[in-house]
Amino acid sequence: MSIEDDKLDQLVDMLDAGNEPTDEELAQKVQKAAREMERQGIVVPFDADKEWEEVASRLDIAEEKRRPRLHMAIYAVAGIAAMLLIVFGIRFLLPSSTDSSTRFAYTRIADTPKTVVMKAGNKQVVVEGDSQNIAVATMPRAQRSKVMQALGYETDNVPTERYTISIPSGKSYSITLADGTQVFLYAGSHLTYPSQFIGDERNVYLQGEAYFKVAKDASKPFVITTDNAEARVLGTELNVSCYDGASSHVALINGSVEVKPKSSAKAVRLQPGQGATISGNESVAVAAEDMEGYEQWLNGYIYFDDATLRDIALAIGRWYNVNVSFDDKSLESLKFRFFCRRDESLRRTLDLLNSFDSFSASFEGETLKIGRK
Fold it and tell me: What pTM does this model have?
């Protein structure tokens, strides 16, 4: 019997036992599976009608009883491959050394770039050095010529072009935009910005996390857009995070910023020391925050105070690009103060985690495992 047949039989047994997931649970599994497939560049073609017929034949359900179940989310995931991914998790997308029962709080990004890369259209150039000004419009002439040539331009005249800079795991990077705004990008982040700001707004697009020191210009607001939120500032310092599959978050260090869901016209104005979490397309939750953690990130630390073990582990997973799993879900909500230098080895970070009495941390294959001691 093939692996697919074996898993399908497990699916049938589950349905026969009355353990069918609710629509909400199924929708969440669909979204998670789709994100993992997209991250790893996996395309799984299937014929929903054909595959449902296979499932239904094993369940021995009459045709007239089967058809109503083909609607909405169940119909969309009726293919065998999708069923395996959604119902039984993302086992086949993860390293072969992991246990199929493992629940991952964070999944590493496959084929992440090893160096900082800047793209313009279908051209790209590797940016060398630990931190440098790569806003093409303000580069020294010699460096500008080199970058423009790599991007396919015959002269160093800077066109009005949009660039995307991508930061690999284990690195952070700072850039200065054409208006003088400084952006400090964290590992796994992508920032899209223009070589020159033209028009009534200064618009950038962020995926991941970055700390902004926005240059003041009362006549031209600086607008940071994420997948589901928008932050509008005139001149301020703020941290914006918008990781895939998570809510967007804006923390205001100083100045003033208006935050709103991307699809809404109603904005919320933050005061220094406040953070806003944007969930979905409408919800904005504002709360007071300790901003020291964001400042310590600028100083080269992974830093958390009174933070959940889940948040700490996710930050470590993103930085080192490793899977993160919890053997006991109740551990995720435990709160700690934790910090380490980002240039520490993963082994040293594990030693620091294991200095706590409430849990143990180990690294197996490509997975950081957290469990009870």
Answer: 0.65
